[in-house]
Design a protein that fits this description.
Blueprint lengths: L6 H14 L2 E7 L5 E11 L2 E7 L3 H8 L2 E7 L13 E11 L6 H11 L1 H7 L4 E16 L2 E5 L6 E3 L2 H11 L1
Antiparallel strand pairs: 1-2, 1-4, 2-3, 3-6, 4-5, 5-6, 6-7, 7-8
Helix pairs in contact: 3-4
């Protein structure tokens, strides 16, 4: 698909999209190996994403047991021009529960700013834990036939070639 934006402009558009997203869709596996989907608010620090989740939530236990999670940022349906080609970015991430949160006050400060300090102050008195999601290379999709392989910070940002993708798919079958 022809695109009037340069690769640098697309990279900047991705970063603006990423910075505007406040929640991640999380794809995990339950204790029986069945797919489970949920979401969580998040912040980014040093190329990693952080979510703060209650032990009451099913996905807390899935993340705690997991080594990997697929995380997706997704454009709002109400602002998407075409829901078949909705803007999104997904990343396969390594998962780590942060047992000692003392070195993560800057993450909590970001959460305070983004989601309301009074709420975070309350949550910190409850059964919530901080998880670090360390993303590998992901995929940013902005329309039909317009996708980019990228890391979280768009340091590496390359357009996915349709012919190459067709070849990858044919090798799967």
């Amino acid at each position: 698909m022809a695109d009037s934006l340069s690769l640098d402009e697309r990279s900047e558009a991705y970063l603006a999209f990423r910075n505007n997203c406040q929640t991640l869709v999380l794809s995990t596996l339950d204790d029986q190996g069945l797919p489970f989907i949920s979401y969580a608010p998040f912040v980014i620090r040093d190329g990693e994403m952080y979510v703060y989740i209650s032990k009451i939530a099913e996905h807390y236990w899935h993340l705690k047991a997991a080594k990997k999670v697929n995380a997706m940022m997704l454009a709002d349906e109400n602002t998407s021009r075409n829901l078949f080609a909705r803007e999104r970015a997904r990343f396969l991430c390594d998962v780590e529960v942060i047992e000692d949160e003392t070195d993560f006050e800057d993450v909590f400060e970001q959460l305070n700013v983004r989601f309301k300090k009074s709420l975070l102050d309350l949550l910190r008195t409850l059964d919530f834990s901080l998880f670090r999601l360390s993303p590998a290379v992901g995929r940013y999709v902005v329309g039909f036939g317009l996708a980019f392989d990228t890391d979280l910070d768009a340091t590496d940002f390359a357009e996915v070639q349709a012919d190459k993708r067709k070849e990858e798919i044919s090798q799967m079958g």
